[in-house]
Specification:
single chain; alpha/beta; TIM Barrel; Four Helix Bundle (Hemerythrin (Met), subunit A); 2 domains; eight-stranded parallel barrel; 44% helix; 15% strand
Length: 329
């Protein structure tokens, strides 16, 4: 039976799940597995590692997602990630962007399952932490029944610790990355069938999951659930994750303490010559649907972006939100 136990995770998302986003999300859930944006193996090896790979200790458990298709380079990048203290290394086999395709990695690796397995084997040999994959059910004209089974069999034989499956095909030509998140139809049943055929192996599901109620239904069929855009655009969802995993009713969440923690974090970031908007842009979706949420968004989208903006702007924005509406509900 798989020892991988991460039942809930937040998807790696380019330009979104940076270190500031992850710190924010960790304040909302102590148990969700967090992922970095995809980092190309060459960048991890030759780039500014502190900038690309640095993270706050409070982010644990946190995984580094790598992009690449060269087993030797991925093994080296995985070693670097492990030395930085990441809990997991994940290989991207799902991104359909032209930039990723030009580097012969991401979703196009669905066409080369043995190469993916070779990459997994090299990374497993290089590190002691867990190695996982995030993939699609297939690409282009592939038959998902054949393609997903072929990939999963090879990577599990190579020692992969978990397989996270985005339950859509990716079209490498003709659709943009954004369209690839919406247009190809979701096929959750295909992922369920994969799990039934791999009873002792960890299979997680991703794609179009918008609520914790939906997440709970998926967890009756597979081992883990990964939320992407819903977790980012409506981050309050994450305040119920720990209770979902523990099978308890969610307690009232202390939003005042959250804002104070984020203000302290932002002040430290500013002291290091950062900008307030780099932190607050990830918080704009908080308080969705509450009175004052529009004003919260306005302040964080405008005032927080101005040169010289200080952390006190978070308190100004929070003062506009009427939390009593939630309590009344």
């Amino acid at each position: 039976m798989s020892e991988y136990k991460e039942k809930f995770s937040i998807a790696p998302m380019l330009d979104w799940t940076d270190r500031h986003c992850r710190f924010f999300h960790r304040q909302l859930s102590g148990k969700a597995l967090l992922y970095t944006e995809m980092v190309v193996a060459d960048a991890a090896i030759f780039g500014n590692r502190a900038r690309l790979l640095g993270f706050d200790d409070t982010e644990h458990p946190v995984a580094l997602q790598l992009g690449g298709s060269d087993p030797v380079k991925l093994a080296e990048a995985a070693r670097i990630g492990a030395d930085f203290g990441y809990d997991e290394i994940n290989l991207n086999v799902g991104c359909p962007s032209d930039r990723v395709q030009s580097g012969t990695f991401g979703a196009c690796l669905m066409l080369s399952p043995q190469l993916v397995a070779d990459c997994v084997a090299a990374m497993k040999k290089a590190v002691r932490i867990r190695v996982t994959i995030k993939c699609r059910i297939g690409v282009d004209e592939q038959d998902p029944e054949i393609a997903l089974d072929d990939l999963s069999e090879k990577v599990f034989d190579a020692g992969v610790d978990a397989l996270w499956v985005h339950a859509r095909k990716a079209w490498l030509k003709g659709l943009s990355p954004k369209e690839n998140r919406d247009i190809p139809p979701l096929d959750y049943d295909r992922v369920y069938r994969l799990k039934r055929a791999n009873g002792e192996r960890f299979i997680g599901i991703n794609g179009g999951i918008a609520t914790l109620e939906e997440a709970a239904r998926h967890l009756r069929e597979v081992d883990g659930v990964m939320l992407g855009r819903a977790a980012y655009h409506t981050p309050e969802i994450l305040t119920g994750v720990d209770s979902l995993l523990e099978g308890k009713e969610a307690p009232d969440f202390d939003y005042a303490a959250l804002v104070e923690t984020m203000a302290d974090y932002a002040a430290r970031h500013l002291a290091g010559c950062g900008r307030l908007g780099q932190v607050t842009r990830h918080m704009v979706g908080l308080f969705h649907g509450l009175p004052g949420a529009r004003r919260w968004r306005q302040i964080l989208s405008t005032d927080a972006m101005k040169p010289g903006a200080g952390a006190e702007i978070l308190f100004e924005a929070f003062a506009a939100v009427d939390l009593s509406a939630r309590q009344a509900a």
